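TICKET: design request
STATUS: open
ATTACHED STRUCTURE:
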């Protein structure tokens, strides 16, 4: 088990560590893993660097990622609201373990924004995890 709050601030190294650990758990997840495996056709290693670049761009403003996330995700089929809830839950757990609470909350808010936009693309409305979050001061799980 990782020690709590190992990082005080996000930086390229901590974001790389976060993304790699998070997506390692995504791969193992019974609900999420098959969706990613099907979409990536065995290209996890190559895609992992794109994920690091994406999250570095979102969280640090690095501008290392170029691409249309919404269009790529809209090509996936059989995605349900449960996939989003599981993804957000895993992200929240990783950020809470790795970062101080005030930093983790910011990282969670950024990921919720990404998830919210993709969810709206799929389903045309705000996800339940986001509606619950807007009525609470606690991070959604």
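STATUS: resolved
RESOLUTION: sequence designed for all positions
ATTACHED SEQUENCE:
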């Amino acid at each position: 088990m990782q020690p709590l709050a190992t990082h005080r601030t996000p930086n390229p190294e901590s974001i790389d560590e976060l993304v790699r650990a998070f997506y390692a758990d995504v791969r193992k997840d019974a609900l999420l893993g098959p969706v990613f495996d099907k979409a990536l056709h065995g290209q996890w290693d190559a895609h992992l660097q794109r994920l690091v670049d994406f999250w570095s761009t979102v969280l640090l403003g690095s501008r290392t990622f170029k691409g249309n996330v919404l269009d790529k995700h809209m090509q996936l089929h059989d995605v349900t609201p449960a996939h989003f809830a599981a993804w957000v839950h895993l992200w929240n757990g990783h950020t809470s373990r790795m970062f101080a609470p005030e930093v983790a909350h910011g990282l969670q808010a950024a990921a919720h924004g990404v998830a919210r936009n993709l969810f709206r693309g799929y389903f045309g409305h705000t996800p339940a995890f986001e509606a619950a979050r807007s009525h609470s001061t606690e991070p959604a799980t």
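CLOSING REMARK: Confidence is low (pLDDT under 50) at residues 134-141. The radius of gyration is 15 Å.
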